[in-house]
Specification:
Structural class: little secondary structure
Distance between the termini: 32 Å
Strand order of the largest sheet: 1-2
Strand content: 5-15%
Number of helices: 1
């Protein structure tokens, strides 16, 4: 059986740890209003090495309802 195109093309996130959201490489530019890479001067949203989105509680989706477990 062929995998769904969503499964094949979806970006796979690596588990992170709390506190790793903004590496020390980035500084906040108050004039521009966004984070920039202090070395390359690239805005964080365009930097390929920047942090990736994560859930607030860093939940891992298992497909099973694990409430109360």
């Amino acid at each position: 059986m062929k995998k769904s195109i969503v499964i094949e093309k979806a970006f796979k996130y690596t588990p992170g740890t709390i506190g790793d959201d903004i590496p020390n490489v980035y500084i906040y530019d108050e004039v521009q209003g966004y984070w920039i890479n202090s070395k390359s001067k690239t805005p964080m949203m365009f930097d390929n090495n920047g942090p990736r989105p994560q859930t607030k509680k860093q939940d891992v989706e298992t497909g099973e309802d694990q409430k109360g477990e």
